[in-house]
Amino acid sequence: MKKVSILLLIFSLFAFFAGRGLVIAKEKQEIPEVDGIYNDPEHPGIKVRVFVHKEKPARSVSSSLVCGLPDPGSSALVSAAGWHLPSSWTYNLNTSNVPSSVGSLNLPTFTNIALTSWSGASGNKVVFTKGVDTNTNRQAYDGRNIIAWGSTQGSALAVTYVRYIPSTGQTVDVDTIMNKKWSWSWTNQSSNPTCALSNTYDAQDILTHELGHWMGLDDEYTNSYVDNTMYGYGSKAEIKKDTLSTGDVNGVSAIYSSF
C-alpha cells in the first residue's frame, strides 16, 4: 500500500511539473508586438518580421468631412525589407469585427483597390485572390493571410506580421491586425475625391501602407518620405497613402523585376 501511495505521489508531481512546463512553453510562443525580426518559435527556419504602424500625434477635434486634402507625390525610393510574395497569393478577410464607421461590406472593396495598386506596381508579378472569410483576429502561421480588426498594443494603428524564409526571401504567411481601439472611417474616393473624416483614421489609407509590407517594402521615417505610402507614421484625416508614390512603385518594381 505504501508503495502504491509513493507511486501515485511521484505521478502527481510529474503531471504537475509537466503541466507547468506546457504553460511556460505556450507563453514563450507569443510573438511580441514590437518592431523587429524574430524567430518563429513553432517553425524552425522561419523568421517573423513585425511592423508596428504608429500614430502621428495630433490635436483632437470633432469629426467632420474635410475635402481638398493634399496628395503630393514623392520620388524617394522605398527600401526593400528582404522578402517577396509568390506569383499567386490568397488573402482572407474578417468582416465580422469591422468597425461600423467603416462598414463590413466596404472592407472587400477598399482591400481590392489597395491590392490592385500593389499588384500593378509589381508589373502584375503578384496576383491576389480573395479566399474564404475568417473569424480569426489574431496573427498565426496557419495558412491564412488575414486582414482583421483586433486588439494590438496601445500605440499601434496596425501591426503586420510577415513570416518568411531568410535563405530564399520567400514569404510563407502574412497577417495584418488593425487596432480596434482607434476611431476609424472610410471615405470612398471615387465619390468623394481627396476627402476624409477628420479625427478618424481612414481604413484604406492605413491598410494600403500595411499591404506594402506584404509586398516586401520596409517602413521609412525620414522627412524625405513623408509623402510616400510607406512613411511609417499615420495621421487622422489622411488619404495620401491610398495613392502609391513613384518611390513606392519603384521600390516594389525593384523587388519583383527579377521574377
UniProtKB/TrEMBL annotation:
UniProt domain Peptidase M10 metallopeptidase: residue ranges: 169-256
Keyword set includes Metal-binding: yes
Key words, A-Z: Hydrolase, Metal-binding, Protease, Zinc
Example GO molecular function: zinc ion binding
Domain of life: Bacteria
Gene Ontology, cellular component aspect: extracellular matrix
Pfam families for this protein: Peptidase_M10 (PF00413)
Alphabetized InterPro entries for the sequence: MetalloPept_cat_dom_sf (IPR024079), Pept_M10_metallopeptidase (IPR001818), Pept_M10A (IPR021190)
GO BP, one annotated term: proteolysis
Protein's name according to its UniProt entry: Peptidase M10 metallopeptidase domain-containing protein
Organism, as annotated: Candidatus Woesebacteria bacterium RIFOXYA1_FULL_40_18
